[in-house]
Amino acid sequence: MATKKTPGPKAKTRAKSPAKTSGKATAKKASAATKKSVKKPTAKPRKKPAGAKPSRGIFWRLVRGFFKLSLIVAIPLLLALAAYTLYLDQQIQSRFEGRRWQLPARVYARPLELYAGQAVSQAKLTTELRRLGYSERLGGEAEGSFQQRGSSVVMHAREFEFWDGKQPDALLKVQFAGNSISRITDRNNGSDVALARLDPPQIGSFYPSHGEDRILVQLKDVPPLLPAALIEIEDGDFEQHHGLDFSGIARAFVVNLRAGRVKQGGSTLTQQLVKNYFLTNERSYVRKFNEAIMSLLLELRYSKEDILEAYMNEVYLGQDGKRAIHGFGLASQFYFGKPLRELNDAQIALMVAIVKGPSYYRPRKYTERATDRRNLVLTRAEQTGLLSPRRAESARNSGLQVTVKGSRSDAKYPAFMQLVRQQLRRDYREEDLTSEGLRIFTTIDPLVQSATANAVSSGLNRLNDTELQAAAVVTDTQGGEVLAMVGDRQAGYAGFNRAMDARRPVGSVIKPAVYLTALESGFTLASPLRDTPVEYKLPDGDIWRPENYDRKVNGEVLLYQALMRSLNLSTVNLGLELGVDQVANTIKRLGYPEKPPAYGSLLLGAVDMSPLEVAQIYYPLAAGGFRTPLNGIREVLTAEGQPLKRYPLQVEQVADPAATYLLTRGLLKVMREGTGKRVWRTLPDDFDVAGKTGTTDGLRDAWFAGYSGDRLAVVWVGRDDNKSTGLTGSSGALPLWADIIKATSAEPLSPIAPDDVEDELVDTVTGLRADDGCEQKTFLPFVAGTKPTRWADCALGDDNNESQPNSPKRKSSWWQKLF
Amino acid sequence: MVINIVVKAFSRKKSGRSQEGFFIRPAAPWAAILALLLVSGCASWEPTYPDSRPAPPPNPWPVPTETTPQPDGSESQPDSSESTPPPGETGSEPSAPESRPPVPPPAPYGRKPATIALAQQANQQASEGELDSAAATLERALRIDRRDARLWQQLATVRIGQGRAKQAEALLKKSNALANGDTGLQSQNWRYIAQARESLGDRQGAGAALEKARDLRAGG
After folding, report:
1. How many Cβ contacts (< 8 angstroms) between chains A and B?
2. ipTM score above 0.85
3. Tens digits of per-residue pLDDT, B76-118?
4. Across the interface, which of B19, B27, B75 has its CB nearest the CB of A165?
5. Beta partners for A195?
6. Domains of chain B with CATH codes
């Protein structure tokens, strides 16, 4: 589908009528000096035959002949020159206003929302502000700055254009209590603010293959010192000249003559712009000639402001791998990690200094050189009155203030960027992504992402096996938003993305699908199951004889115990009774892209899935039976901020809410008493979570999938060569999962019981009703009408209740049952 | 009644300028304090969501008590919706042994000032026909509080307006799942479901939904 919408020219280009000004005389004088090179700027061919003095006889005829000949030669030559000039003119025009720049798509993380009660600690907020390039400054008055004052942060939040309109800047005070925000006030009047939204961090861009990247700026948004200093240093005569600085050219010409080759060019800003537009770095007279004509044409057609603005967006200012840094807007982000308008004097001066040789004056590498030239710029600015001596002096004394590494974080989140790219490819052509300046608002939460990456790398380091690899996916539990994705033990490594591309057998992680199917077909958590040997004939004729992990046979167990202990025999017996086909349908219903082949071994997870796919099928469990397609993008805007596409929240009920609730309660038990017990080494005792381990044959894959109240996370640990890891889901993947949940989840799981579900105390041996007389008892939830009615033998038998039919009781709270 | 004033004060402030402010102001400067006062009266016995906690595990683990920290902070504001009566009561266990404490009345869902503000903004956008923006605003609110059943209901009504009846029904069911015994809200949701089904030509389904709405109204 053609979603293309050509962005209009950004730099304004009212095609100026050729308003010629003064200064003609200087040009003439200079042209005499420069002899050849720059001669025919205008399209009007004016022939001026070489001096021919009348004479007589043969000589006269000869002269006449020569004159004719020269006319014959000169006229076409001049015509050709005129045509060529017209051609150049058309080139420069189309370049200047037609095509504009190819603007890469910018990709943003989620904006951080601030409100009272939000589980964002002071440390997290300041991390976010630094990520956004806010500077820590006394008072936090300037836009894009903040200051910590005890347990509060004062800031001047930036203006930002969101999909729902432009949000102005704001002076805020954010107060903290413990690990969350307690109050937000407007610093102008002290009034309460219910909700504030920071500008979103940019996490990457899709720039075209030739590698040019830029952030457009407008002259009016640029700190005035920048253009002033730029002109002062690079082209002092900019306001006056017509595109060429003839004295400069003359000087260069002499130098070149002496050197015998083209060594120096006295370039005006206009010429530099032309050079940046079209030309290679080749140094030749032909190129100089073209450049000169184009510069004159440019000056003829456009205002100084237009040219200056174009220059500031075009000039080459550095290299970041294969990405070329063009324009001051991007360079400001690249070197200082903040928008241009927030730069101080020293930073502006450094940018101007770099123009002369972005490679030679690379500030991150050649600090001294860059500092010297920056100070030279500052001194010139001081001498010409652009800066007061005091300001110039203090700027000269400051460090370079460049960020450690390029602020570009594409490289930081390669796995998530792949998700974004894949999703965009469904709707956009590659050219649109790399040239239309689309603004893409994604779902990634950098705070969650970095916590996840840390959990994965430190978890694997603890396991002390360099061959181990891992992947993790973290989502929310309401909007299907992917908050973090790690595809390698080094999250910043842009290689194989295991979170999306490594499809591995899932083992017992699949079991909840079996149990959900059962609970939807009338089984209860207390239904007795046979944990006895079973045989299944595979399609190839082989007989499959599953075993429990510990090779034991447990006889009769209750359904929740089979899930809790991840018993294979009872699961297979149950699944075969339900029908493997039914289970396969459930897996598809939960969100697996297709119905998996319905062999018996499917019941124990003989199906390949990526961690992202596992997250998708667990999502409905975490969301009360509602499926939402997992999604990495919220909105796409055009370069002008017009909404282009939304990815709206979609829900679909795919599982019975009561059955989902029962299953979740079973998965809570997995964590409390079963194979997930280990989680309590990490999580606080009262932080309920639900989940399931998975371990495949020969200990090749270790999985853990589960959820808290606000986070769903899936972790896989294994080896790329598919050899044994010696780890189970519990020893390999669960510790990483627990670290992720601990660092990123603010809400324990507390599923809401459907109206027709209530708890009953049951005997864990028989699954019958229990009371104080029973040693082994537990509360289990039941759908109305499915509660056990008979008392267990151990029960004291609450007088005459035994034979009483199960009256439809109204629901009671869990805490009532405490008493 | 007091709450209504709060709402009015708020909407006056916001009227006509849906997205201009950097942030959204709360109902009124004193709204938070008021909400605190309203809630603090019952805060002593009110944990997170009383009905929804899983049963405490048996012996080996310390029984978690109701002191679970409320992750969304303590500030909450009673529901401000005008059209819905107070939630129906969930009732106490009739056969409860006498040793159990008296059952406190169910507390109204503690909506957050931030989501109330966004809900108002969405209302404004929807009334101006800006349904896409209204939906985006409500999604933003749901990111802040996904358990607020009224937000899901409101998003569903926007979907109905957008002609996406199927999606609306799914959202209303989601709202019902989170209603947590608020039969008034559930009844309303079923009426919307009836409307959605009607628009898809499903007469019979619409009738069944209306019946559910009536039953809930009567039973609640």
Report:
1. 221
2. no
3. 333 333 333 333 333 333 333 333 444 444 556 888 999 999 9
4. B19
5. B24
6. 113-219 (1.25.40.10)
